[in-house]
Amino acid sequence: MLHQSWQRFCGLALMATGAVCSNYAFAVDFILPGVEAKAAAGAGQTVSRGASALFFNPANVILCQGVEPEADLSFAKITYSYQNAATETFEPAVLGVTTPTASLGGAWRVDPSVALGMEVLPLGLGSTQDYFGAPVEVTTGSFQAMDVSRKEVAAKIAAGGAFRFLKRYTLGLGLIYTTERSSIRTKNAGTERVALEASYAGRSLQPNLGARIDVGYGVIIGLSYRTPVTRAYKGSLSINTAPEDSPAALQSGDFKGVAFEPAALGVGVEWKFLNYGLFGDFVYKAWSAGRSVSKGGLGADPAETDLINTTDLVIGGRYWIGNNHLAQFAIGLNGANVGNGSAISTDVNNRDVAGVQLGQTEAIPRLLLSGGYLFKIAPGRQIEAAMMVLNGRREVPVGYSQPGTFQLQAFVTTLGCNFAI
C-alpha cells in the first residue's frame, strides 16, 4: 500500500515518498552518511577500505590489518523542498533535518589472503520529520494543503569477506541486510483532523560482489556488482472517510507494498605515483528493471512507471604527506530520473487508497563535493575526518501528474577511527 520512493540520507527518511494503494511499490535509493563521505563522494571501488568497504566493493576488506574495529560519528544538515507549479496557491513544502548518525564495524585479517568484516549503519534514529502545507490532490485536478508527519527506525547491516590469490587479485562477497519500521500521518493543514494513518515494516537481503586487481605500475582496478532487490512491506492503514465537518470515520485495512533497489555495476581505477594519487569511479544503476515493480498513479490498478537507467561519476585526487598523513578531494555527478515525480496525492473515488508523496529524490541530479584528511598513528591505526556537500535541483515538466520544482541540499561531516589489535 505505501512505501517511500526516494533516498534515505543520514539515517532519516528525508521525506515521505510513497503512495498508499493495494500492492503499491516504488524505487528507492540510499546515500549513506559517514561511510559515503569517507569513500570520497561514494567513490568506493578502490579507495574504500576495511569493514565499511562492504557497502561499495567488498574486495577492499582485504586492506584491513589484524583485528581492526572502526567507528564513525557523523553530523548532517539536510534541507529538501518541493514547490508546486501553482505558486500563487501553495507555498513551498520544506523539510529541514539536523541529526547525528553513527556507524560501527570491524574487520579481521585472518591471514595474508583472507579477511572478514561487518558494518552496522543505523538509519532513522526514531526521529519524526514534519512538513507542512504540502499540496494534496483530493479530486482530479483539485488540490488541498496537508500537513505530513513521518517517523522511521531502520538499519543497514553489511557482512562479508575477501580472498586474495596470486598476490595481485582479490575477490570479495558481501551481504547487505536492510530492516525498517515506519509510520506516517497526514492532517488537514493547520488542523488536528487526521486524514490518514499508516505503519509498516519491511526487510531485504542484497548480495554485493567485488574484485580488486593490482595491475602494476601503481594502478589498481576495482569492480563490483550489487544485485537488484525487492523489499516487501506489511502493516496497517486507517483512512478518515468522513466529510470535513463530521466526526471521524476511520476505515482500517491491511497495508502491503514493495520497494525496488536496482542492480548496480561499479568500475573504478586508482593510480598512485610518488606521493600523489588519482582515482575515478563509474557506477551504472539498472533502474529500468523495476518498471513492473514500481508503479505510478493511484487506484486499484496503478500504471507502470518508466524508470530510467542512471550513471554516477566521481573523480578525485589524493596526496600523501610523508607516511602518516593523507588528504583527498573528490567531485561527483550522480544523475537520476526515476518515477513520475508527482507530489502528495489522494484519490477520494477509491477510499481504500490514499497517498503521501513528495516526489523522488532520484529525480534530482546530485552534485557531490567531498574532502577528507587521515592521520595514521601506526599501521592499521588511524583517525579520519571527512565532509560531503550535496546539492540537487530539478524542474518537473507539465507532462507529469503534478509539475513543480524539487530541491535538495545537504552537508555532512564525519569523524572516525580504526584501531588494529
Quick take:
By secondary structure, the protein is mostly beta strands.
Overview of the structural elements:
The protein has 421 residues and is mainly beta. The chain has one domain: Outer membrane protein transport protein (OMPP1/FadL/TodX) (Porin, Beta Barrel), CATH 2.40.160.60. 1% of the residues lie in helices and 64% in strands. The protein has 1 helix and 27 strands. It has a 14-stranded antiparallel beta barrel with strand order 6-7-8-10-11-12-13-16-17-21-22-25-26-27. Strands 2-1-5 form a 3-stranded mixed beta sheet, with no helix packed on it. A two-stranded antiparallel ribbon has the order 3-24. A hairpin with a 2-residue loop joins β7 and β8. The longest helix is centred in the N-terminal third of the chain and has 4 residues. The protein is elongated. The N and C termini lie far apart (48 Å). The N terminus is likely disordered.
